[in-house]
Amino acid sequence: MDEPENEWDTDLEDAENRKSKHDLVKSEQYILDCARRGAVPCSLFIKNLDGEHLNLNHYGLGVKGVQALACLLKTHTKLLKLELEDNNITIEGVKYISDMLIENCFIQHLNLAHNQLQTAGAKAICDMLRENNTLETVNFSGNYFKDKDAKFFADAFAVNSTVRVLDLSHNEFSLEGGEHLGRLLVKNQTLEVLNLCWNHLRLKGAVAVCGGLQVNNSVRKLDLSWNGFGDEGAFALTEVLKCNKQLEFLDLTNNRISCRGAKMLATGLAMNSTLQFLKLSRNPLTLDGTMALLLAVKDNQSSTLEELDVSNVLVNEAFLQLLEETRKYHPKLLLHYAGMGGWVSKKPKEKTDPMKAIQDYLVERKLRLWDFFRNIDKAGTQTVSIQEFRGALQNLHIPLQKNALEELIQRLDVDRNGNIDYSELLQGQKDFLRKSRHVENQRQKVSSSEEKMLSELSLRVKNMIPADLRHDSLHSSKR
């Protein structure tokens, strides 16, 4: 007897029917739950009950809608990515999501951005993060988190070891918040991507974040754009660039970093071998600061920098020549700048005193001025004509341009009698040495002032680092 031709098809149909019935039961359960809570069922969810990705961003679910959704998702085993951005979830609704994620061990990616979660919401999701061990990517951007809320995240991520990507952008972390985030970076060694853009990180808050980065061995991509790091933060980041061996991407767009800050960052770049992307657009770097950054990359054979964004800076021919030279050593380097027209703020080159040429001649040959003049004064009268003096300097190959030589002669012939006396030359030497000492003293004062300013900045930055982070950073540097 022949077997029915559709026997195997029947088994497949049965499996499909069982699946359909199972989906129907779940959808009916969800619809009934929505009705009981007074929520409008989400048709998109019903259509994708067994999907791996559920995108309900901007769907207007509200607290009741989220409650019904969370109830069904507790036992959902196929959903991997859940997006609920901008759904007015608020403090009450996020508690249902948090409870669900404690029980659900399948969801790996979560987006709760812009849901007005605030302090109570921060606590709820951080309590969940302490217990959940499957989430890998979390987005809590734009939820009105305050400074004190950062402590919840620091405590949670001291325990959580599965989240790789954390987005806390568009919140209100500042001084105290930065300190807690610094501790987060010290305690957690599994985060790879951290987004802190559009907060209020500045002064000790910014410095504390850098203190944490000095000892962190996991973060590869860090977005600090649109904060207020300033030169203090740049100084602290310099130390990060010197010792951190993991960071590959750093965004410092719009952080009030000046030319001085850029030059400090350059000292860090000169010793860094891992950073590949550095964004510094919308900072008052000036061309001076940008030149310092590029020169640091050029001179660092170990540099792996591939992209430098200074797209608000106007450059000049000298900069482009330096860029061309740098690319000989780093051919992959891509640099974004605003265009041509930049200028470097330099003081006019100081005019060299022509008497210096004679003084250098004396020092080089270990001669006294009297010995020098006696070789010119063949008659021994302690006076020579201008023509004799000019000819003698030319014969001795003292390096003086014609204009400089004539200027020196005019200065030495004080009585304008057409002769240069030894006394006039001696007085000229005394005037030159006195002026040289004054210039050197001024230079040392400026140098001392700059060193003092840098030392004060360094001390101020160190004092901004919380005591526990300061200890950890010191321990790391010794290692």
Question: Can you summarize this structure?
Answer:
Keywords: Calcium, Metal-binding. Helix content is 54%, strand content 10%.
**Could you report the average pLDDT, rounded to the nearest whole number?**
87
Strand percentage lies at: 5-15%
CATH level 4 superfamily of the largest domain: Ribonuclease Inhibitor
The CATH topology of the largest domain turns out to be Leucine-rich repeat, LRR (right-handed beta-alpha superhelix)
Overall body shape: rod-shaped
Strand order, largest beta sheet? 1-2-3-4-5-6-7-8-9-10-11
How many strand elements? 13
CATH class of the largest domain: Alpha Beta
What summary fits the major beta sheet? 11 strands, parallel
Name the helicity range: 40-55%
- What's the helix count? 18
Rg, rounded, reads: 36 Å
- Strand pairing plus helix content: what structural class? alpha/beta
Task: List low-pLDDT spans.
Answer: 1-19, 473-479
InterPro entries: EF-hand-dom_pair, EF_Hand_1_Ca_BS, EF_hand_dom, Leu-rich_rpt, LRR-containing, LRR_dom_sf
Organism: Acipenser oxyrinchus oxyrinchus
Domain EF-hand: 364-399, 400-435
Keywords: Calcium, Metal-binding
Characterize the structure shown.
By secondary structure, the chain is of the alpha/beta class. It has two domains: 23-340, Leucine-rich repeat, LRR (right-handed beta-alpha superhelix) (Alpha-Beta Horseshoe); 355-433, EF-hand (Recoverin, domain 1). 54% of the residues lie in helices and 10% in strands. α5 packs parallel to α6. Residues 1-20 are annotated as: Disordered. Residues 364-399, 400-435 form the EF-hand domain. InterPro entries: EF-hand-dom_pair, EF_Hand_1_Ca_BS, EF_hand_dom, Leu-rich_rpt, LRR-containing, LRR_dom_sf. One of its GO terms (molecular function) is calcium ion binding.
